[in-house]
Amino acid sequence: MAVLSSLSNAMDSSQKECVLRSLDSLDIELPSWGFADTGTRFGKYYQPASAIDVYDKIKDAATVHRLTGACSSMAVHVLWDFTQEHSPESVCQAARKEGIGIGSINPNLFQDQSYKLGSFGNPDPQIRSQALHHCLDSIEIAKQCGSENITLWFADGTNYPGQDSIRRRKHAFETLLKQCHQALTSDQTLLIEYKPFEPAFYHTDVADWGMALCLAHKAGAQAKVLVDTGHHYGSQNIEQIVAWLLDEESLGGFHFNDRRYADDDLTLGSIDPYQVFRIFTEIHSFAKDLGSLPPIAYMIDQSHNLKPKIPAMIQTITWAQELYAKASLVPFDMLRDHQKRGAIIEAEQCLQRAFMTDVTDTLRVWRREHNLPEDPLAAYAASGYEDAITSDRVQRRKDLGIEPESTYA
Ligand SMILES: [Mn+2]
Fold it and tell me: pLDDT for 21-38, tens place per residue?
């Protein structure tokens, strides 16, 4: 009972300081596609306030950053965000004007009809070459935007046993990733994302963190693994994967979201916040041993089909801040001591106690220190931004002749 009674919610001044400093170190990139009408596998529900073009997305992302102070860049999708009239230069300029940067560059290796049998793994050398050149163009765009990260997600795989040679495809990936790596500048990182299944249903070429790590090692020292929290089987221990990748100095970044069944793109921590806390705990633990936080590209990868998009992003960022701050409160010296003695319950309670600590007051202090609204969601609701973009974008859709087929629900 003595152990239970020590579960207290009150923080002392050094813990408050710990929370404040941890919040200073967290910056999470927002995805441009999270502000547009994006769909499920079956269709999409249109929202009148959704972004029409990349400039709307920049304004929306900058609004989230102004209210939370924790998302200073926006990831872009090459095919969706850059067009003839939206050049990388003008997009970067627009972002700078709004006070954010253009972050990771995401090539698109799945939308073109030619990728039916894969991109880097395609049996046709011409299509593999097309995929490679699209990636090299994306690296070039990243250079123009001053972006450090190029994020590669491959939909590649097969649907039927015998459809293609798994090893031939692996070799093709090794060759092409190496060629991408050679095009990087010294400050750029190639992030290799994995996913167990879907769209491929028999085998996926980069199905898990081990495969991504093998490919990263073969590509070169600037290739790292990207952990999309939704891209795991239900019972997988993601924090163990994170701990191993940290130890291998190969954790490049995250795509945050949550899942209940498969790759559901749900709000981070909406299903299992304790898992997110445990992931952050591994990072804080590693930083404690290392003496400083490792460089990790934190990014959101969520598309909100039902929630209003901007409030959903604000909710995600503030919830991430809370869970990250809670994890910073794990008393690692005490934890190591309990671990050495095999004191399992006391060790586990170091985590539970930190997780249950209410950090919201200190989060408000941090926001005041940074001239941010204490309640970003309430500030957004009171700002009038949603009404303004709704009338602007409904009218512009009419003017552009791109009214959605169905009326808004
Ligand atoms: Mn992702």
Answer: 999 999 999 999 999 998
pLDDT at 38: 81
* Cα of 363 vs its chain's centroid, Å: 22
Ligand 1: centre distance to CA 4 (Å) = 39
CB 168 within 8 A of CB 124: no
Ligand 1 centre and the CA of 174: distance in Å?
21
CA of 338 to the centre of ligand 1 (A): 37
Ligand 1 centroid – CA 301 distance (Å) = 5
Question: Per residue in 214-243, is it b (16+ CB within 10 Å) or e — as a string?
Answer: bbbebbeebbbbbbbbbbbeeeeebbebbb
Q: By the 8 A CB rule, do 358 and 312 touch?
A: no
Put residue 146 in one of left, alpha, beta given phi > 0 → left and psi -120 to 50 → alpha: left
Ranges of residues in the chain whose predicted pLDDT is under 50: 1-7
CB 268 within 8 A of CB 256: yes
How much distance in Å is there from the Cα of 369 to the middle of ligand 1? Answer: 33
Spell out the residues 6+ positions from residue 266 whose beta carbon is closer than 8 angstroms to its own.
230, 257, 258, 259, 260, 302
**SS3 of 200, please?**
coil
Residue in 173, 257, 256, 169 with CA at minimum distance from that of residue 218: 173
Collapsed DSSP state (helix, strand, coil) of residue 219? helix
The per-residue DSSP string of 279-346 comes to HHHHHHHHHHHHSSPPP-EEEE----SSS-HHHHHHHHHHHHHHHHHHHHTS-HHHHHHHHHHT-HHH
Q: Which one, of 124, 218, 203, lies nearest residue 166 by Cα?
A: 203
pLDDT of residue 3: 46
CA 193 to centroid of ligand 1, rounded, Å: 7
Looking up tokens 């220190």 gives 369
Read off the DSSP letter of residue 221. Answer: T
Give distance in angstroms: CA of 173 to centre of ligand 1: 19
Quote the ligand 1 centre to 388 CA distance (angstroms): 31
Q: How far is the CA of 255 from the centre of ligand 1 (A)?
A: 5
Tokens of 269: 């921590």
361: CB partners within 8 A, 6+ apart: none
